[in-house]
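Fold description:
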Amino acid sequence: MSGTPIRLDTHVVVWLYDGRLDRFSDRSLRLIDEQVPTISPMVELELTYLHEIGRLTTLPGAMVNDLESRIGLQRSSERFDAVVAAAASLSWTRDAFDRLIAGDASAAACELLTKDRYILEHFPLAVW
């Protein structure tokens, strides 16, 4: 890891936890390996939501703790007011999770690793 953070989208966290490396491009795996994988608090909130509606069976805290030890996952320390200010300009989505996750990456001026085509199309810091 070079010390450069890269934000991870929610589905990336789920796939990493589940060991679904087949879902990743070679480039995305290299980015995770070479940079500091970091999540926005909104990713944890979205994981909680997905658990509540039955789409995830594992508790979000267990997923995050596991990835902290396995891949050195970090939590973003961006100020929430800075994240919201950055997210306010992202009018290309009405999804509050996507908007704040992208806003966190924008406030930190770092890439967001996502396979979401809509985010990749509209958010200049999105990579896959």
Remarks:
- The longest strand covers residues 5-8.
- The mean pLDDT is 96.
- The domain at 5-127 is CATH 3.40.50.1010 (Rossmann fold).
- Residues 31 and 93 are 25 Å apart (CA to CA).
